[in-house]
Design goal:
- It comes from Magallana gigas (Pacific oyster).
- This is SGNH hydrolase-type esterase domain-containing protein.
- One of its GO terms (molecular function) is DNA binding.
- Keywords: DNA-binding.
- This protein has two domains: about 100 residues, Tyrosine recombinase, N-terminal domain (DNA polymerase, domain 1, Orthogonal Bundle); about 210 residues, 3-Layer(aba) Sandwich (Rossmann fold), CATH 3.40.50.
- The two termini are about 25 Å apart.
- It has about 350 residues and is of the alpha/beta class.
- α3 packs antiparallel against α4, α3 packs parallel to α5 and α10 packs parallel to α11.
- The strands form two sheets. It has a five-stranded parallel sheet with strand order 4-3-5-6-7. A two-stranded antiparallel ribbon has the order 1-2.
- α8 links the parallel β3 and β4.
- It contains twelve helices and seven strands.
Length: about 350
């Protein structure tokens, strides 16, 4: 059914809906509102008011409410965006935004001035904040760009612990499926409960030996948190460097991406949550340093914090449905960026 629902929408519509739903859930999270579906009409009204304050166009607000309406209908609920007040505030937003555009047409002189002000290879601010990575491959002329990929299917492996195992299930239930709505991507998910760093190289060797598909263009690794508290920190930092180097040797032409480990409310080997999360961040720093030195990239998940308990499963370790949605959005955005997929 998910496949048929996906086929009913244009790819651009699917992406727009995903962005709108993410923005709505993030707003409710920031405002400490309950994540309810169907959402109460006052949540939608507050969201539209927030978009207006942020300077968004009425067309953006209407697109986001269309995404909310679509999800409600898919879930078999009524459409709360048809509420009288929702229509009126959207109309009011349109009237307020109906200002004449008095900007001058851009000239060659202005364009040259802009180009001289722009630093080479600068990322859009959204990518800079979300990933803080360097998914760029330098060319001979010093200009940087995302790694070039052809129109052939791009093989992506996502390998990791039970976080990935649960994310696979969550992705299969979303619009876009396990390929995360990424055009031309062929994503192979490999999540293993209890996976530790020492399992990484053997797993990759096993998957490589299966020869089920061509070598992957990209491998996303999400692993390491299960070692925290069990392995001494100095040993753990050395392991991270050595194991990631072995992975690169095993797949020399593959772009490796480190997905930062996630914080936990509950840890298996200690009740000192603060100390365990500090250790985890040190492991991430070492992994990121190594990955960048190997020509790879990395992803951060800044929205997922232990203070946002609604993002976590009741076990305090795994993610809730909303947490998985945020995690998957981060993976999708990073993979699109590395592939050079243009998104609106």
């Amino acid at each position: 059914m998910n496949r048929l629902l996906m086929s009913s929408l244009a790819s651009n519509t699917t992406k727009a809906y995903a962005v709108g739903l993410q923005a709505f859930d993030q707003f409710r999270l920031n405002q400490q509102l309950s994540i309810l579906w169907p959402p109460p009409s006052n949540h939608i009204l507050m969201f539209i008011a927030h978009l207006s304050i942020q300077g968004c166009k009425q067309t953006t607000a209407r697109a986001y409410t269309s995404a909310i309406a679509f999800k409600c209908k898919v879930l078999g609920n009524g459409d709360p965006t048809k509420h009288f007040l929702v229509g009126k505030v959207l109309e009011g937003m349109k009237r307020q935004n109906n200002n004449r555009d008095v900007r001058m047409p851009i000239t060659l002189e202005i364009l040259n001035q802009i180009l001289h002000k722009l630093p080479v290879g600068q990322l859009p601010c959204w990518h800079s904040r979300a990933y803080q990575n360097k998914p760029y491959k330098p060319l001979g002329d010093g200009i940087h760009k995302p790694i070039g990929l052809t129109l052939d299917p791009v093989n992506v492996w996502i390998l990791g612990s039970s976080i990935i195992k649960h994310a696979t299930v969550a992705a299969s239930q979303r619009i876009g499926g396990t390929n995360l709505s990424i055009p031309n991507a062929n994503i192979w998910w490999q999540g293993y409960s209890g996976m530790k760093l020492l399992d990484l190289v053997p797993k990759l060797k096993y998957l490589k030996g299966l020869k089920l598909q061509s070598p992957p263009h990209i491998i996303v690794v999400h692993c390491g948190a299960n070692n925290v508290g069990k392995t001494r920190l100095d040993r753990l930092l050395t392991m991270v460097h050595d194991i990631l180097s072995q992975c690169k040797t095993l797949f020399p032409k593959t772009k490796f991406v480190w997905s930062s480990t996630l914080p936990r409310i509950t840890w298996r080997y200690s009740t000192n949550t603060k100390a365990m999360n500090q250790t985890r961040t040190r492991v991430d720093r070492q992994a990121i340093k190594t990955m960048v030195s190997l020509g790879g990239a990395y992803i951060k998940h800044p929205q997922i914090k232990i203070s946002h308990t609604q993002l976590f499963h009741s076990d305090g370790t795994h993610l809730s449905k909303l947490g998985n949605d945020l995690f998957l959005n981060n993976l999708q955005g990073a993979i699109e960026h590395i592939m050079g997929v243009k998104t609106k």
